[in-house]
Specification:
Structural class: alpha/beta
CATH superfamily: NAD(P)-binding Rossmann-like Domain
Distance between the termini: 24 Å
Mean pLDDT: 94
CATH topology: Rossmann fold
CATH class: Alpha Beta
Largest sheet: 6 strands, parallel
Strand order of the largest sheet: 3-2-1-4-5-6
Number of domains: 1
Shape: globular
Radius of gyration: 17 Å
Number of helices: 7
Strand content: 5-15%
Length: 245
């Protein structure tokens, strides 16, 4: 991100791509708020960044618990008075080992609670703070597997993961959420776009991705910078350009 100092909240930032993104943004001179549901892990992640001389702080936030989200918004309001960038990074999958027909509905619901309803909960809670920013930005960390065009292409390289019912459909829903908020907030100057770090080796995919979390964090940080200078409602591709919705 190339503009002046920003206050950035990242959900699910105590590890993986979220933490790597936080490190990239903090190195660029921004204040990063490490949103995490586990206080011990969140505090440890923030401390790790501060020992590197970076400006970071742990904020207790479980996207599936509206009380913690509201408390996080109150803390940010009291300490910083605004929020410039919200990165909805928290995400889960429970698909591995299941076909679409065998995935328990409770697992499907849990995936949506985090990946979709959690993101909406955080957006709504943080909007009053984003409205106080001179250039509010929301980045929803999505996936190419949430692109209907990708899923409809029988020859697409991602085809081996096309049957992940919970993850793929929740990311498709998150993409729609992105477009709805982009339209709703356009007149206020708050930009909303979908981000894609690429297939990175994380706990979510049992470390099967070919890219590192550091590479994913750099991509997300770069896409956030582009999202600030481009029209709202983009779906960024990790290799540059845009995904088809």
């Amino acid at each position: 991100m190339t503009d002046n100092h920003r206050i950035v909240l990242i959900t699910g930032a105590n590890k993986g791509i979220g933490l790597a993104t936080a490190r990239e943004l903090a190195r660029a001179g921004h204040t990063v708020l490490i949103g995490a549901r586990d206080p011990e892990r969140g505090a440890e992640a923030a401390t790790g960044l501060t020992t590197e001389g970076l400006e970071a702080r742990f904020v207790h936030l479980d996207v599936t618990d509206p009380a913690t989200v509201a408390a996080a918004a109150e803390l940010i309001a009291a300490e910083y008075g605004r929020l410039d960038t919200l990165v909805n990074n928290a995400g889960i999958t429970r698909d591995f080992g299941h076909t679409p027909e065998t995935l328990p509905l409770d697992d499907l619901r849990a995936t949506y609670e985090t990946n979709v309803f959690g993101a909406v909960t955080v957006i709504n809670a943080m909007l009053p703070l984003l409205r106080k920013s001179p250039a509010g930005l929301i980045g929803n960390v999505s996936s190419g597997l949430g692109s209907s065009s990708v899923l409809a292409d029988p020859d697409h390289p991602a085809g081996e993961y096309a049957a992940l019912l919970g993850y793929n459909t929740s990311k498709a829903a998150l993409n729609a959420v992105t477009l709805v908020y982009a339209r709703a907030l356009r007149a206020e100057g708050i930009k909303v776009s979908a981000l894609e770090p690429g297939h990175c080796a994380t706990d979510l995919n049992h470390h099967s991705g070919p890219s590192s979390v550091e590479e994913g964090g750099r991509r997300i940080a770069q896409q956030l910078g582009e999202a600030l200078s481009e029209p709202s409602g983009q779906f960024f591709h990790p290799d540059g350009g845009r995904y088809p919705w």
